[in-house]
Amino acid sequence: MEFLLGFLIAAAVGLTGVGAGSITAPVLILFFSLPPALAVGTALSFAAAIKFAVLPVYLKRRQVDFRILRLLCAGGIPGVLFGFYVMDHLDASHYQHVIFAMLGVTILAVSLANLFRAIRNRTPISGTDHAKWLPPIAALIGGEVGFSSAGAGAMGAVALLNLTKLTPAQVVGTDMVFGLVISILGGGLHLNAGHFNSSILVKLVAGGVVGAITGAALSSVVPPRPLRLALCIWLAILGLQLCWKAFA
Question: What is the mean pLDDT of the chain?
């Protein structure tokens, strides 16, 4: 089951750009009954492995703008540290409802950001460069990732589309590498704190590597837009379920 889940999520990421962490954490909580901290740590480590596997492709295609990447990391790295600190100190049974609520709201926000991204992709990229705003925005994104594992792909792409002159290919590549950096950092912190399920993680990564290759191969023949919209709706449903679980 975990192998299949990893395969499907990684293939979907390759086809649509929807973040691995956004999907994986709520699924692990709702269907595998993992505590939030373990789900987030496992999801971040899985996301880092998937993004690392496809990193050479983006570097070879020169899709990474390193100036923009430095600005993102300047805010995203301290943001991840703060998000992890919050999650680590809220990981107690009497805070479970608060964590579920915050995770649910974050997942809903990510799904809306992905919908916006799908619509925005039909319009030209911003003609002005407001990259100076990227560090504080990246800090918020990093905080979400460190706390919930969600947000790097969706929120980062929205920020780059609106604040930079990057081409669509550069937006995808730069955002992916930014997500890789903060996933490695956040996942490492959670792993060090014991926030992971090793048996599930190994199976997810094994399936994810195959899924990433499959998604990359199918990306040129499968229309990504309908699948992205369907996944956004699914994310929204998962977010609502987490919010319901918080108050049930």
Answer: 83
